[in-house]
Amino acid sequence: MGLFDSLTGGAAKVFVEAGEMVRGEAGQVVIRCQSAGGEVKYDRVYLKIQGVEHVEVMDTDLVTDYDGDVHRRGELVRASRTTYNEEINVAPAGVLAANESAQWTVDITIPDTANGEYNGQLASHHYQLFAAMDCFGNDPDSGWVRFMVW
Questions:
Q1: 3-state SS assignment for residue 143
Q2: Which is it for strands 123-134 and 44-64: parallel, antiparallel or unpaired?
Q3: CA-CA distance, 145 to 150, in Å (whole number)?
Q4: Fewer Cβ in 10 A, N or C end of the chain?
Q5: pLDDT at 5
C-alpha cells in the first residue's frame, strides 16, 4: 500500500448490511472493515442512517415566441428530502493490522413514527446505511446501501 492509498480511503474496505426491519422494533446492522494490505489507524467507526423521499413531477410552461406562437415546454423536476437522519458511533479509536478484518454488530431502531417504504408513480421513500472508519485523509466507507424498513 502506498501513501496515496492511505490518503484516499483505499487503506481499508468497509461493508455494511442489514436485514429487513420493522419500524419501532430493534434490528441489527453488521459492519465489517478489512485492511487493504497495510496497518490502518482509525479514530472511530461510525454508522449513518437516513430515510430519503424522492419526488419526480413534470413541469410544463407555456412559452410565447417572438411572433406570438405559444408552445409548451416541459421538463422533469426532481427533488429529494431527508426524512430521517441518525449517526451512531460504533467503535472507538483502534488499529487494524495488515490484512486483518474486524466486525461490529449494531442494534438500531427506526422510530414507529418515521415514514415507511413506498414506491408510487410520483414519489418514493427508502432507507439507506453508510458505514465508515474515521481515518486521516478520506474515510474508507461502504457508500450508501439501501435496506428495507416496513
A1: coil
A2: antiparallel
A3: 16
A4: C
A5: 41
Q: Calculate Rg over the CA atoms of the chain.
A: 21
Any idea how long the chain is? 150
Ramachandran area for residue 119 (φ above 0: left; ψ -120 to 50: alpha; else beta): beta
Identify which of 25, 66, 47, 49 has the alpha carbon closest to the alpha carbon of residue 128: 49
**Alpha carbon distances (Å) from 21 to 14, 44, 61, 80:** 22, 26, 42, 23
Give 82-122 pLDDT, tens digit per residue: 999 999 999 999 999 999 999 999 999 999 999 989 999 99
3 to each of 40, 61, 92, how far by Cα in Å? 12, 53, 24
**40-72 b/e (C-beta count within 10 Å ≥ 16 → b):** bebeebbbbbbbbbeeeeeeeeeeeeeeeeeee
